[in-house]
Amino acid sequence: MCFIRTVLSLLLLFLFPLAVASGHSFSRHEGIEVELQRITDRIAIRSNRAELYLERGALLRLSGDWMAALGDYRRAEKINPALRGLDLAFATLFCELKSWRAAAGFVDDHLDRYPGDLEGVRLRAEILVGQRLHADAAHVYDQVLLLTSSPSPELYLACSSAHARSGNVSGAIAILDKALKQLGPVPSLQLYAIELDRSRGSFDTALERVATLAALSARPERWLVLRGEIEIDAGRETAARVSLEAARTSIEQLNQARRSTRAVGELAGRLESLFARLESREICNMETTQ
Amino acid sequence: MRALGVGMGLIGVLSVLEIAVCAQTVLIPVGADWSFLDQGVAPAADWNSIGFDDMLWSPGQAPLGYGDGDEVTVISFGPDPDNKFITSWFRHPFQVADPSQIQNLRLRVLRDDGAVVYLNGIEVARSNVNPGPITPSTLAQSSVGSVEEDFFFSYDVDPALLSVGDNLLAVEIHQYTGSSSDTSLDLDFIANVSPSVIRGPYLQLGSSGGVTVCWRTDIATDGRVQFGSAPGLLNQFVIDSDEVQDHFVRLTGLTSETEFFYAVGTSTTMLAGDDVDHSFKTAPLPGTARPTRVWVLGDCGTANAIPQAVRDAYESVTGTERTDLVLLLGDNAYNNGADGEYEFAIFQTFTDMLRKSVFWSTRGNHEKSELDYFSIFELPTAGEAGGLPSGTEHYYAFDHGNVHFVCLDSLSSDRSVGGAMWTWAEADLASTNGEWIVAFWHHPAYTKGSHDSDLELNLIEMRTNFLPLLESYGVDIVLAGHSHSYERSFLINGHYLDSSTWDATTMLIDGGDGRATGSGIYKKPLGPNQGTAYLTAGCSGKTSAAGTLDHPAMYYSARTLGSAVLEFDGNQLDVQFINVFEEIEDQFTLRKEIAFEADQVSLSLSAGGTQTMILESGSGRAGDVYWVFGSGTGTAPGIDFGGGVILPLNYDAYFRLTLFKPFVAIFGDFLGVLDAEGAANAAFHLPPGSDPAFAGATLWHAYLTASMIGGAEFASNAISLTLDP
């Protein structure tokens, strides 16, 4: 393992210039400088404290100084190879460099020592996504959800997305429904569920979800446009026209301050595009009938 | 709850017995005698148990320690003052004849820097020491500042841990660093304590129909909030029967815009409140325009004289009028945002304001303890105070009258376009009817203070990913902290990349000072991309010498301590920055251009009167003809004149009157020409003694403008006039 880590560290030396070239820059600012100095002062007194190097390395990583962060992690490793959190620190750093294989090695080491550790499992799931191993990622994200007492919308979305990308759209939707039951009608979850429903032709379910969002809103036009869009996808041209007309009326009835914003202007543009799409559909249908 | 006996006589007797049995008992007083070990060598593992032989330990009276000059017993730190012993150990035995008579136990510890406390070998409290295994080299979580040095931290201890007869309380004190200048220990340990409020009360999650009242007691109790229209008239109450120390009691079903006085306590005893200092006022209904005052504090968490001075300056300048709500821009309690740090930085600094105004917070980078932060604040997740549900307290929205507030998380949530926070924000902005939109978070989009918005990832991503979204929905003002200085922008739009891409020709909407007494207030006419003001104000606790303070988007930048005040009134927002010297160091006004407004909304049929109407279409319509029309049946669906011009009136009998008879006496200047500013005045004259049959009717007016060649070009908003008896 020590040899592998050395190899991976050398790998980092090659990756680091690439990372810098990609536009990531150091962002040491006064706050971080003060904290770095504070820890450095402590290290000066207690140079055999591995956790201090770990703490400083984390700050260096946050400021983008990966080489220095790696150096501190290596020092911590030399003093106490079994220091809790060190493997995760290495893994996180390699994740930021998108060096997934290296990251995976460290996170596996961490989970060997601390099976079921939430942070480690979560990081493993992220690494698997980075490696495009979506089915495996989905499985690991399932574990993360079980381990997390109050999953956030972000976590549910990540889990759902992993399932969807692995081809398990039903599973992805089930996770979102579970999240919606837990957290309420959160738009970020509901909108992704709508997207998935549309992808598999579950238009009625998608429309029910839109209705849920519309019911929460003081302004219906955005949801009416979405409803019309789904109804067009579903081949329900008559219903779509009703929805889009209602959206148009709703936009017209907005007070001028609201109506004149760029966002509403863009929505109105999208609405007109949908009308055009609807009309061409209707013409096609007429020609087909004839 | 103890059952009372039957009959009045027995009740009296039982009451006396109960008092005697449950009397408060000091098991260990402040200033007690302790045995201590100060040699830097760990004792045996059972040192914190009653059976351990501490004969070789030293005796001493509390407070014990060194370095402060107030110790009764000075303990040793070892031979090297730069490498002091990290841990010292302390023991105090005590007797309890009958633990079954003890209903509660309160421990109060004065510790410098951190402490772990054991009762009969079981850990019962840990103060300023990280969770996890404890060794003699375990460091305290943070260094204790001067304010904390004299503070006793309270803990509720389970009486079931007591033994009959001999008991032992043991403490280990841990330093933050081997070069620490001082250490201290004192404590008291009391049984059958009458509960008292040790934090708050403070208000959270305010809305038009409710509020959450929060407080902490020194021992676990149930909780009750009594409330009513005046002190002494608290005739309503809500009880939470959970026995806890941190109480969060939600009051719902309240009338909007109403002041309530309140008290907190147990289900049987009032502990605090029922006076003029404990009151709150519910918010106006969403969409209702009311004068609203917002106090903004950025990075105020230094827990020293500075935020106190900022507070005093604000109160001195703004007077006794109620502050409707307070925004905390993050870094509210240095250095880690731990609960103990919040105690001093927020609860002891803003005690009075916390009782009367709801504090809304966003998380800063020094709010390192997520657990502590979300244990202190109760923030909406399900749209409880307006806006769409976010599913998380990290980001949320709320309404206060006609102002919609959006709080984003620049620290830990996914900041990417299309991520959960972005998607929620987009949906929320699309759903609000708030006339004003205020966004706030910690890491500023624009700064050249102690942080550089060109270089730091959080700042870059908030600017690049969220400003286009917010500006597309017409956000009016964005507030942030993080940089320890004050920076206030011009009225700008569309600056999303780094500062070198600033282009005043396209991004500067108004390059003036925004002052009525200066180059003129910022006016935000109808239409897209009309500008946003940005405030970076992380200067309520400290300033920094770092940074060039020369961001091109900023009108004013200064290393100055203070806080900001936002005053919303109808279509106008006044912003002031009050420094610690009670000076208004900066100010500007932002006014939303409403094309048509009136001086009053109703007239009396019997008394008569005049509604004066003000037309403001902007100087671009100077010289255009205007025509004021009316409707008695409402503003929808309106009349479409083509070319996107829709007059928000219905074609009815009253409309025809204004169309065909614009010069009748009741219509004053309903038809005319706009002046060089695109403005004019009109009036509706209601004669006295008008027909009372019209009582309750509402008339709507709006106007069209037309150029000589272009036809109808602009339709105003509609204004209303209610006819009272």
Short description:
The complex is a heterodimer of chains A (290) and B (725). Chain A is mainly alpha-helical and 290 residues long.
Shape of chain A: elongated
Beta-strand proportion of chain A: under 5%
Protein chains sharing the most extensive interface: A-B, 47 and 61 residues
Give the overall pLDDT of chain A as a whole number: 88
Write up this protein.
The complex is a heterodimer of chains A (290) and B (725). With 290 residues, chain A is mainly α. Chain A has 16 helices and no strands. Helix content of chain A is 80%, strand content 0%. In chain A, helix 2 (30-45) runs antiparallel to helix 3, helix 5 packs antiparallel against helix 6 (100-113) and helix 14 packs antiparallel against helix 16 (262-289). Chain A starts with a helix and ends with a helix. Residues 12-25 of chain A have low confidence and may be disordered. Chains A and B meet through helix 2, helix 9, helix 11, helix 14 and helix 15 of A and helix 6 and helix 7 of B.
Keywords:
heterodimer; A: 290 residues; B: 725 residues; 7-stranded mixed β-sheet; 9 helices; disordered N terminus
Write the layout of secondary structure elements.
The complex is a heterodimer of chains A (290) and B (725).
Chain A: H1 2-21, H2 30-45, H3 50-62, H4 66-79, H5 86-96, H6 100-113, H7 118-130, H8 134-147, H9 153-165, H10 169-183, H11 187-199, H12 203-216, H13 221-233, H14 237-253, H15 256-259, H16 262-289
Helix pairs in contact in A: 2-3, 3-4, 4-5, 5-6, 5-7, 6-7, 7-8, 8-9, 9-10, 9-11, 10-11, 11-12, 12-13, 13-14, 13-16, 14-16
Chain B: H1 8-21, E1 25-28, E2 33-37, E3 58-61, E4 64-66, E5 73-74, E6 87-96, E7 105-112, E8 114-119, E9 122-127, E10 153-157, E11 165-174, E12 183-191, E13 197-204, E14 211-228, E15 236-251, E16 259-265, E17 270-273, E18 279-281, E19 292-297, H2 305-318, E20 325-328, H3 339-347, H4 351-356, E21 358-361, H5 370-376, E22 396-400, E23 403-407, H6 420-431, E24 436-440, H7 457-472, E25 477-480, E26 486-489, E27 491-492, H8 504-507, E28 508-510, E29 522-524, E30 533-537, E31 554-558, E32 562-569, E33 572-579, E34 584-592, E35 596-598, E36 602-604, E37 609-616, E38 625-631, E39 639-640, E40 646-647, H9 653-660, E41 667-668, E42 671-673, E43 679-686, E44 698-707, E45 711-715, E46 719-724
Parallel strand pairs in B: 4-5, 19-20, 20-21, 23-24, 24-25, 25-30, 29-34, 36-46
Antiparallel strand pairs in B: 1-12, 2-3, 2-6, 4-12, 6-11, 7-10, 7-12, 8-9, 8-11, 13-14, 14-15, 14-16, 16-17, 16-18, 19-32, 22-23, 26-30, 26-31, 27-28, 32-33, 33-34, 35-37, 37-43, 38-42, 38-44, 39-40, 41-43, 44-45, 44-46
